[in-house]
Design brief:
Elements: E1 10-12, E2 15-17, E3 24-28, H1 36-49, E4 53-57, H2 61-73, E5 78-81, H3 86-93, E6 99-102, H4 104-107, H5 110-123, E7 126-132, H6 138-144, H7 149-165, E8 171-176, H8 180-193, E9 198-200, H9 208-224, E10 230-231, H10 239-252, E11 261-264, H11 275-285, E12 294-298, E13 313-317, E14 321-326, E15 329-335, H12 339-348
Parallel strand pairs: 3-4, 3-10, 4-5, 5-6, 6-7, 7-8, 8-9, 9-10, 11-12, 12-13
Antiparallel strand pairs: 1-2, 13-14, 14-15
Length: 351
């Protein structure tokens, strides 16, 4: 069992982060925030997929002005993403948002940052303190020569101390880079020195499959070390894929269970059914079914019920047919043509 790092609590709306709360899954909309209808439609889809906190971009005034309507109608807490403009930040803080993402390296004005923090404290708005390799302070680049893990950690520690020096504590820290090893090192250094909750991820991880693999390695190692209170998988893909990947990572480490977990064989010459197609169809039909079940789809008699004893329900496939089983006990034989529908029907009948 993974022993998680002890951190203090931070609240984003009604969602608790840190202090041994479940690791929270986040994502970010890819719509223009000023397009309120499209943004809310995407937020609702992400919520349905399991997203628990959503970040929306607010680079211009029109986006900030759309925030009140979005916050009012969002089913989950909303974080406004602010980078260069303190003026936009203050507009966002008037919208009722639950959190704000600040990258001090992009604002670089301590006076303005202090004003923003004072306003956040007054309105009970959480802050995500963002440090990443693309906006590291010049002094640290000169000191280290490149955005090393040590440089990123030093920046995060510096700004965390500044936040606390002005009496602001309701914040989490995000230290991200696209280099997996430097990212791990930065978060590890920071985690050893503070009890501040960490939002983890690999930024600019890339597209689909490759991005998911890179994110899984970086995020998975940190989680195994007990580091991470909230997570976002950053992919060049539909945000729903980010949420699904995040839950898969957490589930593989026993840190969260959400929905159906499918256990299925690799393909090989022993298989006598179209296993990839069967698994794909079952996965699609159960995509939004929020039951914490293990479903096994075994491809041959070698990898049959015996290797799937821990599954709640499954198929042990053979020659154009399969045995449908529950908790290791055979229920009935089904043909290849009917096995998907029969399996899904039995799963939906499980209380």
């Amino acid at each position: 069992m993974i022993e998680r790092r002890k951190t203090r609590p931070v609240y984003v709306g009604n969602v608790k982060i840190g202090d041994n709360a479940p690791i929270i899954v986040q994502s970010m909309t890819d719509t223009k925030t000023r397009d309120i209808e499209s943004t809310l439609n995407q937020i609702n889809r992400l919520y349905k997929a399991g997203c628990e906190i959503i970040r929306v971009a607010a680079p211009i005034e029109e986006d900030a002005k759309a925030l009140p309507e979005i916050v009012k109608n969002s089913p989950i807490p909303v974080i406004a993403d602010i980078h260069f403009s303190p003026r936009i930040a203050f507009l966002a803080l008037e919208s009722g948002i639950h959190g704000i993402r600040l990258n001090p390296g992009n604002i670089n004005d301590k006076g303005k940052i202090k004003e923003i923090l004072q306003e956040c404290k007054k309105k009970n708005i959480a802050v995500r303190l963002g440090v990443n390799s693309g906006s590291l302070e010049e002094r640290l680049l000169e000191k280290y020569g490149y955005p090393s893990g040590e440089a990123l950690a030093e920046s995060a520690l510096y700004w965390s101390e500044f936040f606390e020096s002005v009496g602001f504590y309701n914040f989490k820290v995000s230290i991200k880079g696209s280099d997996v090893l430097q990212n791990i090192k930065a978060n590890q250094i920071f985690a050893e020195k503070t009890d501040i909750p960490l939002h983890i991820g690999i930024t600019e991880a890339g597209p689909g499959k490759k991005g998911s693999i890179k994110s899984s390695v970086g995020i998975g190692i940190l989680l195994y070390m007990g580091i991470g209170d909230t997570v976002r998988v950053s992919l060049t893909a539909d945000p729903e894929e980010e949420v699904e990947t995040a839950y898969s990572i957490l589930q593989s480490l026993g840190l969260r269970r959400k929905g159906i977990e499918i256990i299925s064989c690799p393909t090989c010459g022993r298989i006598e059914v179209n296993l990839p197609e069967i698994v794909s169809k079952v996965e699609e039909k159960l995509k939004y079914l929020n039951k914490p079940l293990k479903v096994a789809i075994m491809g041959c008699v070698v990898n049959a019920i015996g290797e799937a004893k821990e599954a709640d329900i499954g198929l042990a496939c053979g020659n154009k047919s399969a045995i449908l089983f529950k908790k290791g006990q055979p229920i009935k034989r089904v043909s290849e043509e009917e096995m998907v529908e029969e399996l899904v029907k039995e799963i939906k009948n499980i209380d």
